[in-house]
Amino acid sequence: MAGGRDRGAVPVKGRLGRTATMAGLGVRSGGRWTMSRAKRVFAGAGRVEALDAERELRIAADVVEVLGNMKGALMKLGQMASYLDVGLPEATRTSLAQLRTNAPPMSAALAASVVTEELGAAPDELFERWDPSPIAAASIGQVHRAITTDGRACAVKVQYPGVAEAIAADLGSARVVFRALSVLFPGLDPVPVVEELRERLTEELDYGHEAANQHLFADHYRNHPYISVPEVYDDLCSPRVLTTELVTGSVFEEVLNWPRRQRNRVAETIYRFSFGSIYRLGAFNGDPHPGNYLFHPDGRVTFLDFGLVKRFTPAETAQFERMLTAMVIDRDIARFRAEVVAAGLLPAEAPFDNAAVESYFTHFYEFVLEDEPRTFTPEYAAAGVRAIFEASGVHGELKKVLNVPPSLVILQRINLGLISLFAQLGATANWRGIAEELWPFVDGPPSTPMGRDARAWRESLSPP
């Protein structure tokens, strides 16, 4: 491994060390901007465009290198930025996408030492075959292929040493996180994202917790025609090692070049998994980014990484149902406002009329308001980001009084992540028809061929 990538194998530790690293990133980015601006003075129009593109690429490369080597919360922010903000320059978003699967890995010897410490024996003793080169490396750990002694192909996720300390340092210093977000989301208010990270990231550090989450989803979706969740091999798991069934498939960047029909099918599968899990299982994987999916041409999707799962109480899902009924099914804005107040989102005395409340919240329901096909576009996704983060106008004033409960914070992230992903796919479907199948309080008939297959699967699980 080349020197720069190997140095990033272990996260930079300590609040001061990580603050200094991010400060260095800011200095380098500022220097690149100053140099580019000076060159533009003597350049023609065509050359100015080339200089701007070169600057974007170099700054993006700096961000990817620093965040990839730091691991932890800051790298997680980079992963989120790669799919969340369709307004980022294409060069930046493309570079950040490398953080989803191609982050700098830890050395083979270090990964093996973690397995040995956690499971009591070296990988070569525990497994029939062990690949020392990881097949994926991300913010918390990296994944190795192996074959168990009884012949099962498996994926072994190994947590980076020191990543817990790195996350604690990041979340203990809001200024560091804010500075990182200012590079990735210029002009946006990062507080909601940082608060969610503060509450949820620590859950991802316990692979025993993740194994229990994955069991929940694997049991629920077993034998589903389109939704696949790898099985967990408990005898090869620990708090810092997670061993599961190995599944192969296409990654998101490949799917973007598939024919529209295939892209629509995988989008429908993700939609059914996302909202079907909320309303039928009372839980959802709260980290909906493309690196957590493997795609198959027939529309099947394999869902990975269950470290950050939100479990909803019956009272919470009942609240979601009442809000949906008021806004979408009955279009009763006065009742919707009352439900928003009851949910703790909006103070009862807030000085905004129902029209302002409708204007702010409609965007989050817009794709299911009408019973007709709709196509997700980059413009629609960008409007969603603005609705959450912009601080100007009546929406900005209304947002100042909103008090988002934890159950709705995670739904906000799910909505933004999925809408951005679907926009990149250019996905088209009658989302209202599919949603009515998934909402138990409607339990509508199948609206697509995939819906008929899913209904047959669900009925096969019911006792005679």
Distance between the termini: 59 Å
Fraction of residues in H or I helices: 55-70%
Radius of gyration: 23 Å
Mean pLDDT: 77
**Which stretches of 5+ consecutive residues score pLDDT under 50?**
1-8, 14-48, 50-75, 78-87, 184-188
In what range is the share of β-strand residues?
5-15%
Helical stretch tally: 22
The major β-sheet equals:
5 strands, antiparallel
Count of distinct strands: 12
The gross shape turns out to be globular
Q: Structural class of the helix and strand makeup?
A: alpha+beta
Task: Draw up the topology in text.
Elements: H1 3-7, H2 15-40, H3 45-70, H4 72-84, H5 90-96, H6 98-101, H7 108-119, H8 123-126, E1 127-130, E2 136-137, E3 141-148, E4 153-159, H9 163-171, H10 174-184, H11 191-204, H12 207-221, E5 227-228, E6 241-245, H13 252-255, H14 260-281, E7 283-285, E8 293-295, E9 301-303, E10 309-311, H15 314-329, H16 333-342, H17 354-362, E11 374-375, H18 378-389, H19 393-399, H20 406-425, E12 428-429, H21 431-438, H22 449-461
Helix pairs in contact: 2-3, 2-9, 2-10, 3-4, 3-5, 4-5, 4-10, 9-11, 14-20, 14-21, 15-16, 16-17, 18-20
